């Protein structure tokens, strides 16, 4: 085979029973090399299509099913790595090494100086402190590795409005201006006049109040204040993402899914709810359902439209074909570009519901023209060393609101026949 094996790492981390070598044949790739990752995902997708075709043609057995699932998972990993590279490209952050631990020049200098002058009067071993163990200290990691927190990309795709007051009002008009054709001398009766409406976007408040002892702040070799600030920032972003998708508006943003037809805020907007298109199957996604979804959106909004769904749902989309047997999902072909479904860019939103009967499994449309995020002030930190001595509290707050300000540029895919 032209390419070397790359599913070995994946196979070792899965609970599936051992499978033949043929199941694990996939290309390796360097996660720091965009070209290699793109080539790897393209080859992996070719393997996936072959295996999935065997499954669809009635040749499926336990081994074929395991092969399809493993390759699908590997493609997810490749695509996630490419998405990370894309994010770094966007942030002009290529080249940074996370967790890189530079040598301590002061320690090295002091250690060398001691060894040049130190007296050695007996056999020395590092196993005993007095016999030399003090001279062989254990190096330790001066970085802190955090557990994964999934951050929603809704803010990055939505419209963000910064405000300097307690809230934000948006005015709307139905553009219902009446008109008509008349003769030269015919009367001109009054025509209909546009009606106005408004929506209020009131920020909610999110807070954190962690504490560190003063001595720990003084003595720690790690910049704990900066580390804690980064942790709180990540947690705020996670909480925001949850609220932007499904928030109930109680001291938090209104989630976009609450504006879908039949949901809690379906009647909140003057222009109605976000329209729903059925997937075409009671408990699954179908190719026809996505085609209906894409063409239900007015062409004026299609230019900036993207498909928003979670990772498991995207995995199900990867198996869909058109009437000619072509797969709708296509991997990234160049750095900085997302994978697509029928040519539509895909955005992974972890807080979207899974594929199940009655769920909204995907959103399709122009998020910038649909959802508004309202920021008041930004993140504010109050350093409090007095309330709970000897601890220093870092009382951190952020006021943010959100809601749909135009339902027309968005469609929702509901899992239903």
From TrEMBL:
<protein>
    <submittedName>
        <fullName>Phage major capsid protein</fullName>
    </submittedName>
</protein>
<keyword id="KW-0732">Signal</keyword>
<dbReference type="Pfam" id="PF05065">
    <property type="entry name" value="Phage_capsid"/>
</dbReference>
<dbReference type="InterPro" id="IPR054612">
    <property type="entry name" value="Phage_capsid-like_C"/>
</dbReference>
<feature type="signal peptide">
    <location>
        <begin position="1"/>
        <end position="17"/>
    </location>
</feature>
<feature type="domain" description="Phage capsid-like C-terminal">
    <location>
        <begin position="132"/>
        <end position="414"/>
    </location>
</feature>
<dbReference type="InterPro" id="IPR024455">
    <property type="entry name" value="Phage_capsid"/>
</dbReference>
């Amino acid at each position: 085979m032209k390419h070397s094996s790359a599913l070995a790492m994946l196979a070792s981390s899965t609970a599936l029973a051992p499978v033949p070598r043929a199941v694990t044949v996939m290309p390796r790739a360097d996660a720091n090399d965009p070209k290699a990752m793109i080539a790897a995902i393209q080859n992996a997708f070719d393997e996936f299509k072959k295996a999935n075709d065997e499954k669809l043609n009635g040749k499926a057995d336990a081994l074929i099913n395991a092969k399809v699932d493993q390759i699908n998972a590997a493609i997810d990993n490749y695509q996630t790595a490419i998405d990370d590279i894309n994010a770094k490209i966007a942030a002009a952050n290529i080249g940074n090494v996370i967790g890189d631990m530079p040598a301590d020049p002061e320690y090295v200098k002091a250690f060398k100086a001691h060894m040049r002058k130190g007296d050695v009067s007996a056999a020395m071993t590092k196993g005993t402190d007095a016999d030399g163990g003090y001279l062989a200290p254990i190096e330790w990691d001066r970085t802190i590795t955090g557990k994964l927190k999934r951050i929603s990309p809704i803010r990055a795709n939505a419209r963000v409005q910064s405000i300097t007051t307690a809230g934000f009002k948006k005015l709307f008009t139905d553009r219902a201006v009446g008109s008509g054709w008349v003769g030269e001398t015919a009367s001109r009766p009054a025509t209909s006049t546009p009606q106005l409406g408004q929506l209020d976007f009131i920020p909610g408040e999110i807070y954190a109040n962690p504490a560190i002892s003063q001595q720990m702040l003084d003595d720690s070799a790690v910049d704990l204040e900066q580390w804690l600030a980064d942790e709180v920032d990540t947690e705020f972003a996670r909480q925001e993402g949850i609220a932007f998708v499904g928030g109930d508006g109680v001291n938090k943003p209104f989630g976009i899914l609450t504006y879908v037809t039949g949901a809690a805020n379906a009647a909140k907007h003057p222009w109605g709810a976000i329209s729903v298109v059925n997937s075409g199957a009671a408990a699954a996604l179908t190719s026809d359902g996505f085609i209906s979804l894409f063409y239900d959106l007015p062409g004026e909004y299609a230019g900036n439209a993207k498909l928003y769904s979670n990772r498991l749902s995207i995995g199900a989309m990867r198996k869909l074909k058109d009437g000619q047997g072509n797969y709708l999902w296509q991997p990234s072909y160049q750095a900085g570009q997302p994978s697509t479904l029928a040519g539509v860019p895909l955005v992974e939103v972890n807080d979207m519901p899974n594929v199940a009967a009655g769920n909204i499994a995907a959103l399709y449309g122009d998020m910038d023209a649909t959802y508004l995020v309202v920021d008041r002030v930004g993140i504010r930190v109050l350093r409090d060393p007095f309330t709970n001595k000897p601890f220093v509290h870092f009382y951190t707050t952020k006021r943010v609101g959100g809601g749909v300000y135009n339902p027309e540029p968005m469609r929702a895919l509901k899992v239903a026949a």
